[in-house]
């Protein structure tokens, strides 16, 4: 890949470039901050149930922290690219890598989760399994690729749709981000029929058929490496690895800190796990021990160690990225930066194993996943059969159900696939509380007038 041709300020919606005091990539960050899709993340589960008596991370606070880490990674790698390849860079490219790569990565990190439904990954599973469990009634209404989208519903692909598609009655191009930012969140730049376990860029899929043309524009403008036209598969954009690393760094460490605050993980276990990770990358552990000895508050101790652990993982990610940069540019790296580090670092392996056993399988987490699965499934079942009926065949209960759909999600003149995607847009965009409240109302559990 040519470093001068993998970024662009071109946006979805084909709006002409306008001069402003902010760069185009800073404007991306601001547009995401002010978008309703980003605001809704404040009431979407990260891992632990919301709300609670102890404030833990939701999708919004997680995204803000990932963005902070991503800005650091992008800024440092921008300087590295400038210094290493400055003889090959145009003046525009020098300016971009020195001053704007950090903004692109920060913006991409900020919106990397906007396509995720309520209730964590169980929300994704509920949407996919709704179609799997109703295959006999539904499959013949869609072509092979459309059906693959639905039975493999994926938050990463949905993020491209949320950010770039034109909803009914709204402006073209979604929130009109630059193609550079959108390319940076495409962890799986292939269509659903091409997904394949064991291949990092095909583990899941990155765009729905409805947004395929938009994604092809993104790929062309940022010069993604084409692996296959049919099925459509691209190699990852070089910036994706930094966004993924920022996300991996945060959830590996922050979930542990949240579990400690909730009393799920003891102070000694958390302290030992974090300290071992820091020790594996920092010879100056005496200073860390002395600092810990001066802090009596347990939460503050863990916060200090969390900061040191994140810093250690940032430094290691930068080292691995730089070492593998040429491989990344050619689209040939086959493992994530943190996964590469995990393979050689026992402390990080221990944190992952401990998290799986003690956190992700904790009763409270499993309960919210089960509840969320049922809520999301039932909401889809309330709307999809009705939206797929021809208007003249709809009964009174179908019409009543569809009156609950906001108009921007209703594509009456579209195909069955587009109609169903509209319902999925509505349900997947819900917050935990909104989804639960609507479920209780349509099931008759809560009856009463609300405005």
Automatic annotation (TrEMBL):
One Pfam family recorded for the sequence: HD_assoc
Domain HD/PDEase as annotated: residue spans: 55-261
GO molecular function, one term: dGTPase activity
Region (Disordered): 1-21
Annotated Gene3D superfamilies: eoxyguanosinetriphosphate triphosphohydrolase domain-like (1.10.3550.10), Hypothetical protein af1432 (1.10.3210.10), putative deoxyguanosinetriphosphate triphosphohydrolase like domain (1.10.3410.10)
Superkingdom assignment: Bacteria
Protein name: Deoxyguanosinetriphosphate triphosphohydrolase
Keywords assigned: Hydrolase
NCBIfam families: dGTP_triPase (TIGR01353), PRK01096.1 (NF002205)
Biased composition (Polar residues): 1-18
Keyword Hydrolase: yes
Keyword Hydrolase: yes
Protein's GO biological process: dGTP catabolic process
